[in-house]
Structure formats: structure tokens, C-alpha cells
């Protein structure tokens, strides 16, 4: 006889009716000469279970009422099971029970009954979703989220036992009965609080000789769940208040600040130094899952293909990053057919200079091409002007009329009211005759503005003189709107920043 493929039921338990409940299904391929010890090692490896720590029982259902379960305990009983499984493998499942619950030869042990009863008596509803390795901070956060903020509040505790499969926290007074116990669920990454003695039995006048110390790492573990949303404002003073309220611990402002930074590092894919080492591999994975993704300049396939259905007017801008290494985030945006903001491309550079803008626009051209009717709208940054002339010499480069208005207000600071009254109408009018009337009125109200605007170039800030169609895009407001959405994201390390941009574009 050859090899045998068997079905296993794992992660469940056998109840008092001798029925296997819960769990999941797995398969194993057994060699014809497999031994009982070899089978146990294969199952332990499959389930990632240490047999020296956790007991493992093997049974199979016989289908006869007088002995519904038969234990697989040695080579002889394994041979019997394999004989049945060869006849019908989908009928004779090998039932695997791991943990304190013990079933041997179809009988539930008294120890298992007692522990199961204790578990049901002390179980706290709602605290069965700790998807993390347990520590005091994790348990405390989950307890608060599920309506049990008092679980660790104002308790002087210590970690009594801590292993990969369970953790026990007790009061520091030796005679006190207060404790919390959590264990890892079988075949799962989740943890469950199984024991909670709520009342302290230590003397009321008991005071610890040495107060608990909260390092920045511990503080970060305790507060990191409050920082999952990048847009949340969570100040060091808030950290201090939460640590006092939840744990009765006074910490300094500097510890609170460092703890918050530790939480940021944990949630945002490492420190800024580590984050700058990750983009090559990260972008490689993005290229595998997003065909059309090119360069560390970021342009997703949906943006590349969608641009052909948009008006050929691109608003470009750059905004400062606020992380440890600063830099700037370049953006290229347009309007789609529904007048909605349509992000095209992003890039990261050291600063706004000729080299960085030239690099970014070369990437834009290589991905989106060069349309003869292309219009680029930006502010009056000198490097943008130089780069557009170099990369898109045939494109019309328009100026954001609001940026130009701010320049006018700075130069003609004593005529701001007159500027606001006449400039916007002059810039937006379509008709040349109307433009001449409005421009004359503006020039009369603000002496010197005529020469200034003519030097800038009438075609660059007015709709009536534009050589190409700007449609209604007279400003870089769509770029500014995108920058506003990313205002908190710009504080993240580089890899987390790229990931947040990806999530934004895929909404």
C-alpha cells in the first residue's frame, strides 16, 4: 500500500456528549511506514504546538454507539486508524485536541471538566479579540475598548508568568487575590482573557515600597491604539492624562513625548531611518499587484489610463513633508469628467529646485505623454517655470490667478480692496472687449499694476488671452485640496506615506 492522505479536525474540543465541536479542517499525507511518534511530530509542526508545554490527544470516530471514540495512542492504534481511513478517508477524521482539555479513550477527564467550568465562570464577554501578543498595555487597551476600563485601573500589578501561550498578571501584594489571566486560542492568533479576579484583598493601607516605572516603550505600547488614525491630534499632555487615569502613573512630559514617538514607530512601519530603506522592496511589490506602476515617482495604472478621458489641464504643486528628514511631496492633479479631483502622480524630493522639478516633470511626461493641447497650471515658483520650459516646451504654462493676486497684495499693499474688486473679474472674463474695459478700470484704481501684470504676461493669468483652453481651471485649488487631505499623512515616514497615498487613490 502507498501513502495515505488523511483529514484532520483541529482547533476544537470534545464535549461531554463525545462530539467534536468547533475548529477547522487540515490534511496530512502519511507515509505507509509512519510511526505514532512521527505522526505526533507532524501534527505538532503543522499546528505550531510545543508538545512539552501543551498536551495533544488524538482520536477518531468509530461510528458504533458503544464506543463512539477510539484513541490513537501508539503504533497499534495508529495502524487501526489508517485501516479505517483507507476505506473512507472523509468519514474517519483524525480528531486533534490540544490544550488543557484532555480526552482519552472516549472519556472526559475530571480535570478538563473542572477547568472548563472555571473558564465559563470567569470568562469576560467581549474580551476574546486580542489579536496581539499579550502584554499589560495590550490587555488594558482591549479591556477599555470593550467596556472594562477598570480592569487595570489604579492596580499595582506585576507579570507573574509570561509564555508564548499565556500570560498571568497579579497584584504585587503576595496575599492579594487580584489577577488577570489570558491565553492564546488554539489555531488562532487571538487571545482570550480567561480569568479575572476583580476585588483586591490586600490591606487598605498597603503602599508599595517602590512605585511602578513607565518607560517610553511601555507608554508607547499602552497608547498606540489611540494613534491608528493619522489625523488624530494626540498631544503628550493627553498621554500623561491617559496614563494617570488608566494606570495611576505620573509620567513626565518628556517620557510622554518619547512614548508617543515609540507608538508612532510601531504603527508606521518603523523609524524614519528604517522607513527610507523599505521603498525599493515596497515598490517592487506594488508593481506586482498594480501593473502600470512606474518609478519611485508614483503613478497608478488607474490614473495613467484615466487621464486620457480628462481635460488636458494639469495642476502641479509641491508641499513640505513634516517628518524627520523633511523634503517635499510633488503632486500632479487634474479634473475628471465629473469635475472631481483626479490625482495623477506623486513624487518625493529633497526640496523645490530646478533639478527636482525637472526630474518630476520628466517622469510625468514619460508616463502620461505630451498632448499638443496640454495646459499646465502652477504658482510662480521659478524652478517650476524653468522645468516646464525644459520638459514641456510646447505646452501652455498658466499661472494660478490667486497666487498672483497674493503677489499683487504684497507689492500694492495699500490697494488690496481695489485689487480684490477688479482683478478677479479681469482674469476670468472670456471676451477681449470686456477684458480691455475691466483692465483699464483696474489700472486706474491701482497705479503701477498695469506694467506689473504686462511684465508677467497677460496670456498667463487671463482666460481671454490664453492661447490654449484652460476651461475653468484658473487656480491650483485642486492641488491645494489634495495637499489638505494629506496634511497629517505628510508627517509619516516615507513608506507609510506611500501606503497612505495608495489607500487614498484606491478608495
What does this structure look like?
This protein has 507 residues and is α+β, with helices and mostly antiparallel strands. The chain contains 19 helices and 18 strands. The chain has a five-stranded mixed sheet.
What's the helix and strand layout?
Layout: E1 4-10, E2 13-14, E3 20-21, E4 24-30, H1 36-47, E5 56-61, E6 69-71, H2 75-87, E7 94-98, E8 103-104, E9 107-108, H3 110-122, H4 136-145, E10 157-163, E11 166-171, E12 179-184, E13 191-197, H5 216-223, H6 236-247, H7 253-267, H8 272-275, H9 279-289, H10 301-306, E14 313-320, E15 328-335, E16 341-349, H11 354-368, E17 375-378, H12 382-391, E18 396-399, H13 401-411, H14 416-428, H15 432-445, H16 449-456, H17 458-461, H18 477-485, H19 494-505
Parallel strand pairs: 1-7, 14-17, 17-18
Antiparallel strand pairs: 1-4, 2-3, 5-6, 5-7, 8-9, 10-11, 11-12, 12-13, 14-15, 15-16
Helix content: 25-40%
Cα radius of gyration in angstroms: 34 Å
Overall pLDDT level: 77
DSSP, total strands: 18
Could you tell me how far the N terminus lies from the C terminus, measured between alpha carbons in angstroms? 56 Å
Describe the biggest sheet? 5 strands, mixed
- Record the strand order, biggest sheet: 4-1-7-5-6
Query: What is the subunit organization of this protein?
Result: single chain
Q: Strand percentage, roughly? A: 15-25%
